[in-house]
User: Fold this.
Amino acid sequence: MQFIETRGNDGKNPASVSFSEAILSPSASFGGLYVPQSLPAIDRAFLEKHMTSHYKTLAMDYLDTFGIDIDKDVVQVALDRYDAFDDPKNPVPLSEIEEDCCVAELYHGPTRAFKDMALQPFGYILSKLAQQRDENYLIMAATSGDTGPATLETFKNQPNVKVACLYPDGGTSDVQRLQMVTEDAPNLKVIGVKGNFDDTQHTLKELLASADFKAELEAKHIKLSAANSVNFGRIIFQIIYHIHSYLEMVRRGKIAMGEKIYLVVPSGNFGNALGGYYAKKAGLPVEKILISSNINNILTDWIEKGEYDLTNRELIMTESPAMDILKSSNIERIMFDKFGAARTKELMESLAQNGKFILSEAEKQSLQEDFSASYSDDTECENEIARYAQKGYIMDPHTATCIKAYETLREKPLPTVIYSTAEWTKFSPTVAKALGHPAEGDVEALKWVTEHTNVTVPPMIDALFEKPIVHTIVVEKEAIKGEMLSFL
Ligand SMILES: *Cc1c(COP(=O)(O)O)cnc(C)c1O
Assistant:
């Protein structure tokens, strides 16, 4: 399988690259992204073949049909990372919350958010590729709380890769901060930045653009890659769990093989939803993908109105911070798939220059064939958390945005899968508040929720409060470059 570019080719980059090249150097011509030239079919024969398969067997077979240029034994060890999830036989369990609705829990990995689903195997593969080529890579991450811990966890002690992770000091939950600052390995650097997530991300972009930083990397023979969802190496693993969730619905007798379902995806950078879109396009029987957001509802406007307008918006901090995003990177891959490279380049350049773009009526309709969208504010989310807690199911605030989408966007009475992207333990103060007990911090909130509901705190979260803090640096934005150079 070869990979092509969403904004066309500039004559300097190769016209197409292999999977390994696309993941080692994820930026394409004109600032575009890499996408697969075609998608292998997820047809009835493929689904029936995997009715009783282990998750890893399904994954291996899917990656095989994709024809990625990674040795099979490397892929196998990468997939073995799922053995460390709560249930090695089923890393993504489904919980029924309504007769026709199940929650697919993507958070049973080491850092308790769905980022582990892709980053766990991806980290092993990237490091292995770097070793095979005798190259060294730096991964820089600015995080609002979930990407950072998952990136550090997957790369810790992996040869030929270093990770530098910037987080906004005071802008994450206690659990998220502890997951980063207690991560002890010589190839990891974690820096708290005084400011909010926007400041942190901006600082990272400045650093990546600065000439002396680039020169320093070159002098040290260090190449830059990325571990966010602009990297297709993450997206490919995010197609697999949509197939798994469909098969689970068949196994549970919720649908017969071939019947359609709805998927509800709480979205930010649209990587999770893109995986669902590719699965649907390849043949998975999905009626529509329902996109849920918080009040940073730019994706709702994109899908409902065909407008993407940053000019009259400011990022608003919410209780679902992983979705506090205005520039959603993977919508570009959807638009490429539907409208082609020339139009995608035009739309993305309009966004960069004018802060907005508007789709034609026909383009908007094409988008609405696959997607519908809605959003919930914090109060609505807290109400849903409380309502489902009454019924015995505890969900995190990101997952809670899905309930309105499930209740209002379905045009047909088809069974539905909601994706749960984080465990409640990462956002326990919000959950405690929703249940009527505003807590001082994570320790008190975790304790109160476990005492008043049927859930427990997993050992890796409990252990965080005992682990020594190894990364103590919190600096002003201006001091980051110096910190980075000393780390390298
Ligand atoms: C990253 C994240 C999301 C958003 O996922 P995208 O693939 O970026 O759309 C949603 N919820 C949680 C908890 C996350 O960590």
